[in-house]
Amino acid sequence: MTLTELQEIVLQLGMPKFTAKQIAGWIYGKRVRSIDEMSNISKKYRELLSESYTVGCSEPVEAMRSVDGTVKFLFKTLEGNFIETVYIPDGERATLCVSCQVGCKMNCLFCQTGKQGFAAQLTTADILNQIYSVENSDKLTNVVYMGQGEPFDNLDNVMKSLDILTADYGWAWSPKRITVSTVGLKKNLQYYLDNSDCHLAVSLHSPIHEQRMQLMPAEKQFAIADIVELLKQYDWSHQRRITFEYILFGGINDSPLHAKELARLLRGLECRVNLIRWHKIPDVELNEVEKSRMVSFRDYLNNHGITCTIRASRGQDIYAACGLLSTKKQMSEK
Description:
single chain, alpha/beta, 2 domains
């Protein structure tokens, strides 16, 4: 809950308004797991709070560890569904990849989550619990909304979670530590750009309309050309950063023509491109790209004014890499 919501609750219960800030301090500052731990609130008020409320955190049900140090956690949501969350340590950095939906409606051809279908929206508590309850949460340096689901298809709960993460009464994180990914839901994307200073990542994967539509059905309604035009209306030269995610599929979107069209599409926009290796999923006839093709693609973009890097693949052996998250099996066993 936000501080305003906490204030409304304590006033309804006949408690002093300042108690809300105390509660926020215990939950977001000291990260207590029960109301009973809030020792500077009277026993009477703690009992009153406990009659209707809980802190709302729950431990992961399961953890799988990769040979590269990546850890994939399985969480059970408040409604009894399951989601996956990925912890990625990298030297002094530790990034948590969080989910925002159970499954996904976008049905991108290359994504295991999309094959699962959509089951439910995560509440703000479900989203924050992944950050709150994962082991080593105190060591996190970055959070990316790149797990299961399309963040801007759950706009209200995602925005509320961002508010709490960055608010003084909450985790007080800099927006620079948070990145939200999207396929490009234009109206909700614009709302995010107008109301948040967190970073943005856009799933692009092809600069050619017809081909992107085959890979990503959302292209039919949210064309990448229109999304890029929207993004060009904003200033990306200061605090906020934009990244385009581009999975390379061998013989599909890795040609010099694709590199040329991508450079043309992004010309004039302060941004970077992350090239990602394709990770095979069942029943999808797409091919992995040769390393030399990735390097050539990267070099072409860098030589034509588009900052481009190749993202290291992490956690592939535990199905934690990009596009591999799915809780379909856990849901069927529920």
